[in-house]
TrEMBL record:
Identification of the protein by name: NAD-dependent protein deacetylase
Keywords in alphabetical order: Metal-binding, NAD, Transferase, Zinc
Listed GO MF terms: histone deacetylase activity, NAD-dependent; metal ion binding; NAD+ binding
Binding site for Zn(2+): 254, 257, 280, 285
Any Pfam family hit: SIR2
Amino acid sequence: MNASDDVHLVDDPPVTLESQHIANPPTHDVEDEEDNEIPQIYADFITEVFENEDIEIEVETIGMLSYVKRFFQKTSINRFFENMSSKKGETSLPDLYDSFARSFEKSLPTESPPPQVKLSNFTLEGIAKYIKEENPKICFMVGAGISTSAGIPDFRTPGTGLYDNLGKYDLDDPQDIFDLQFFDEDPRPFYTLAKELFPTGVKPTTCHYFIKLVDEKGLLKRCFTQNIDSLERIANIPSQKVVFAHGNHITSTCRVCKKKYNYDWLQAHLADKNKLVPFCEEENCNGVVKPDIVFFGENLPTSFFLGAIHDIPACDLLIIMGTSLVVHPFASIVHEVRPEVPRLLINMAAVGKKRNPFAPSLMYGEPNNIRDVFWPGACDDGVMELARLLGWDEELKDLIHREHLKLENKAQYQKNLNTLDSGTGDSVAGPSTK
């Protein structure tokens, strides 16, 4: 793969939405606020469309334009359009609604010649044959399922055991601990969970090293991960090839003064049994420090949207592993590949199927399927079988053994993690020496 094929992405920290619950929020002008909200407008609208099973009836009843208007009017997004309308006097609010509706309708599937079938058959064997013959540029979409064999549970799912220590906080919903407003009001439940959520010394899985091997073969376009465990970096997958869609805990930020803290600082705090919530050490601050993971109520990092625009449409194969494909906008990029590009799902459960006509669906198992493959089972088993079919299995096993031996050295483990701290241009504080 030529270097020119890649768009360099910077692993920006998540773009923080303005909140009434933040003490002394940073000031910014209206234009900057609008620029930051633009991706979220589309993300929120697409999320509603994908999750609304009755949308076809509603659109047929009231029309697409009315549906769009109603969506805007019940959300804060309406303020964005009102600001645009007032600033650009020549553009009326109805015109902006109409423009958005027409733009969205143009993005819906239309009648066109059927795309070329790339796979000889819709099995793992067919995918392996395609890779060997075509040397495709590959994008990965991965979720919690690729890390469970490392001992990291799918923490967003209630009942995993991680929530057992939270009963004393009387939460209406355990996932409230990942809500930004709730965190600002009471960060204790999150940090009770974080002591188990961010263990040290965890080693990457077969899946992580398969992605690394794909990169060593020159085939990796980009890896989009929902995970916040940073195992992609510990596996030494090049940082410019990984998009941390939901952030990571390698750095943390003070909610008040925005001072940055590094991985060692947070881990030292979490390891202290006498402390729970970390507070900023900047003089006269004492704000709560939050890991740079994306909470409900925050935007995804800019790198995610850039990758969705530039990388997904440019890839020749999409491999999806260990994700439920229900959290948007992450899940929606499955449908941003070109119509002929094969998509492989390796997962314990069959996911990605939609009945909503406005929500494109994975088509494995359907009579009109021309590109999708589903391999049911544990993700590690799936990639090892794919490696065997490619003739890479011994190479993959050697890579895992070699890299795990390196990680026995604590300094090497830390070196892999610290590659995320560099290049941000920000000053990142380490553990206090006081």
